[in-house]
Amino acid sequence: MTQRRILVTAALPYANGPIHLGHLVEYIQTDIWVRFQKLRGNHCIFICADDTHGTAIMIRARQEGRSEESVIAESKIAHERDFAGFDVAFDNFGSTNSPENEKLCGEMWQSIRAAGLVKEKDIEQLFDVQEGTFLADRFVRGTCPNAACGAKNQPGDNCSKCGSTYTPAELIDPISTLSGTTPEIRKAKHLFIELEQLHDFLDEWTKSDDHLQSEVLNYLKGHFLGDANSPEGRKTLRDWDISRPAPYFGFEIPDSPGNYWYVWFDAPIGYMASTVQWCERNGEQFDDWWRSDDTEIHHFIGKDITYFHTLFWPGMLKSAGFSLPKKVHIHGFLTVNGEKMSKSTGTFVKAETYLKHLDPSFLRYYYASKLGSRLDDIDMNLDEFAAKIDSDLVGKVVNLASRCAKFAVASGLSAEYPDDGGLFAQGAAAGDEIAAAYENCDYNRAMRLILELADRANPYIENAAPWTLKNDPDKAQQLQDICTIGLNLFRQIIVYLAPVLPRISEQTGELLGRPIESWDEAKTPLVGIPVNKFKHMIKRVDRKDLDAMIDESKDEEVTAPPTSQYNDSAEPLQTEPLAEQCTIDDFVKVDLRIARVLTADDVPEANKLLKLTLGLGGDETRTVFAGIKEAYKPDDLIGRLVVCCANLAPRKMKFGVSEGMILASGPGKADVFMLRVDEGGKPGQRVH
RNA sequence: GGGCCGGUAGCUCAGUUGGUUAGAGCAGGGGACUCAUAAUCCCUUGGUCGCGGGUUCGAGUCCUGCCCGGCCUACCA
Q1: d(CA A347, CA A340)
Q2: Residue A614: predicted pLDDT
């Protein structure tokens, strides 16, 4: 087998938050792949770094009254500690805020300039005078410019009420969330990369040589590239705004003073900069890794950053003459017990918290048993988690060693490998199929295949009954032979599991006095060597530990803000900060009335709407379309008293004219909570 | 609304280019063993392959319509 040269990256974690179980899907997935490649004898390096630039870090540093460098230094220590805790072993973990990165950004930039891809445009942006900074969309809130909507306290890029999109400069009465002051509109020069110039290249690259999973190709075609042969035709790629005016935490653009590269420009270049650091430490040449057809580059990322890694990044690499990725491996998100990770239910578990309670091998094996080569989200079901570890790892795999080793300590392994009915040979033969599954990121398949080996080994031991043989001195040889077989079958399985379970691989090495270093060791049984005393390799999952982990994850959120006796979360206020102060005059403009729901009908064509007729007493009624379909059934509403805004300008909607709004809270979808009226309230009464 | 992925045993999933009687693990039931971390082994219950059409000698597999779930995207509040 010729040795492949493989450079692997995992996405750069942002230096503004802790590593959690969701991140770990990717880092464990990637680490397994890297360990597999190394075990196969390939020259493989695993490169990562902290992603350190951008507004969010700058703001946080300001709020905490310290330097950005201090924030990211602290983050790096925490990240490296967490990764090490899960046996995620990078060959180099760098930082995008490194001299190597700045230099490479400059080189990349020059090439892109030289290729004629850069153009300048003035854009209008809101500027916070007090903070002295331009405001990214998410740091502005104001009134929706859509005249028919006029919703207050909306984010800077789109309205959560009416969904219209706009620029922050178009917002009415904008407020900076940083200072609470009113920002002013300022024009600033921005630099753009005209990606459209690379359209032909991207069409070709994305569809060729299995660079991408097929679903990803479909997605890119449908949303960005288009397809000249389809009825919709080809789409035009938008220019990419890659500069930000000062102040910005990042690298200043050398030929455009006062402007900085947008974080997404320098982040992927961080893969390269981190490689430079590794090369320097190991006496290797950077060009052998990033400018060589002999090297495969594999990126592992989550589906949220598909766009950057499958269009911009290949475009940048191509323009600057670097190697293109051989494959971008994209995975889905993590859900816990079937739902998004959530702080309130304690399923938002930080890496650090997990490690206080549970063995990292558990999570590595569990993720491996769930991960396939596609972008489906994976679900971590806590019951299944416990069952899989106990049944597969403890009961079947480790138990093999546990039940054989003690009978072999005195004798060691037989001098020759005995007849085992072909079991070891079968296991050796399965190696190629297992390897193919790993190579293709079908870890769940690999785990299934490996467990089959354990399912054959246990009955063999059962029938051979070494515990009976040990009582008969005449059968000492037979006893030694059986243990030789059992321990070799065990070791074969551990060789295959070594990428997933490095600790157990190491312990197995210690048990038999031979470290596991190569995949091919699964082809040759060990003979004539001593056996050391068996030590426990893994514990069973204790439900109490799982529960404690979840509890602790809940606690953190509750104790963070000063709490009242009700433990109300601070999250809703953070999600939607308070609007600008208003006067009583402003308030009385809004005429809120109690109303009775007279009719409530489903609007079949609408996703979210119910059509309601509200009675304000007497003959006065209002027809209102309310986005509460997923939260309420029409029949449950009829007769009920609600609070509505009765003087809202009528709004023409797809399904008719809406003449008011019902007051409700909540993020939407099924989480909508209508206001109730206490006993005695009457339709038509005004709410003051 | 559009795109993608999925719907197979109580649960998690395999089912190759269409080809016998649809499989595995876990869970459940019965039994055995007691070396091993209450681990293991044997036997066993369990399926309208989401639903309806179609193609075919033959459909879990191919085509089509619909239903349901997830993700993406849009519209709409």
Answers
A1: 8
A2: 85
Q: What is the pLDDT of residue A7?
A: 96
Nearest residue, CA→C1' of B6: A376
Residue A278 buriedness (CB in 10 A; 0-12 / 13-18 / 19+): buried
Instruction: Let me know: does A348 contact A341? Beta carbons within 8 Å.
Output: yes
CA–C1' A665–B68 (A): 29
Instruction: Output the DSSP codes for A346-364.
Output: T---BHHHHHHHS-HHHHH
CA of A578: how far to CAs of A173, A551, A575, A639, in Å? 14, 30, 10, 33
**HSE-up (13 A, CA, CB side) for residue A403:** 23
Return d(Cα A469, Cα A573) in angstroms, integer: 70
Residue A169 corresponds to which tokens in the numbers above? 């400069």
| Residue whose C-alpha is closest to residue A209's, from A342, A38, A326 | A326
**Radius of gyration of chain A measured on its C-alpha atoms:** 31
- pLDDT tens readout for residues A421-444: 889 998 998 899 899 999 989 898
- Please tell me the distance from the alpha carbon of residue A40 to that of residue A34, in angstroms, as a whole number: 10
Cβ atoms of A63 and A107 closer than 8 Å:
no
Q: Which helix (H) or strand (E) holds A9?
A: strand A5-10
Nucleotides of B under 7 A from a protein CB: 1-5, 11-14, 25-27, 33-37, 39-42, 70-77
Q: Which of the 8 DSSP states describes residue A419?
A: P
CA nearest to nucleotide B32 C1': residue: A462
Span CA (A65) to C1' (B10), Å? 56
Q: Is the dihedral of CA A644, A647, A653, A655 positive or negative?
A: positive
Closest Cα partner for A348 from A332, A328, A334? A334
Question: Is the dihedral angle over the CA atoms A380, A383, A386, A392 positive or is it negative?
Answer: negative
pLDDT band at residue A411, thresholds of 50, 70 and 90? confident
Taking each helix axis from N to C end, the angle separating A68-85 and A55-63, rounded to the nearest 10 degrees, works out to: 110
Instruction: Name the token pair of A416.
Output: 């020759």
Give nearest nucleotide to A397 (CA–C1'): B39
User: Strands A295-302 and A661-662, how do they pair?
Assistant: unpaired
The three-state secondary structure class of A245 is strand
The distance (Å) linking the CA of A455 with the C1' of B46 is 22
Q: Give CA–CA dist A122/A204, Å, rounded.
A: 32
pLDDT in tens, A203-218: 888 888 888 888 888 8
Say if CB A504 and CB A398 are below 8 A apart. Answer: yes
Contact A392, A521 (CB under 8 A): no
Pairing of strands A295-302, A5-10: parallel
Note whether A683 and A635 are within 8 A (CB).
Answer: no
- Measured in angstroms, what separates residue A220's CA from nucleotide B24's C1'? 37
CA of A263 to C1' of B72 (A): 24
Cα atoms in the Cβ-side hemisphere of radius 13 Å centred on A301: 22
Measure the CA–CA gap between A85 and A27, rounded to whole angstroms.
12
Indicate whether A85 pLDDT > 70.
yes
Of A656, A650, A603, A651, whose CA–CA distance to A627 is shortest? A603
Task: Identify any residues that bridge with A119 across adjacent strands, giving them in sequence order.
Answer: A192
Q: Are strands A378-380 and A621-626 parallel, antiparallel or unpaired?
A: unpaired
Tokens of A289: 């890794």
Whose tokens are 């009976």? That residue is: A468
Complex confidence, ipTM: 0.89
Amino acid, res. A477: Q
pLDDT at A276 > cutoff 50: yes
Please give the Cα distance from A307 to A262 (Å, whole number): 15
Going by C-alpha positions, the residue among A453, A464, A459 that lies closest to residue A408 is: A464
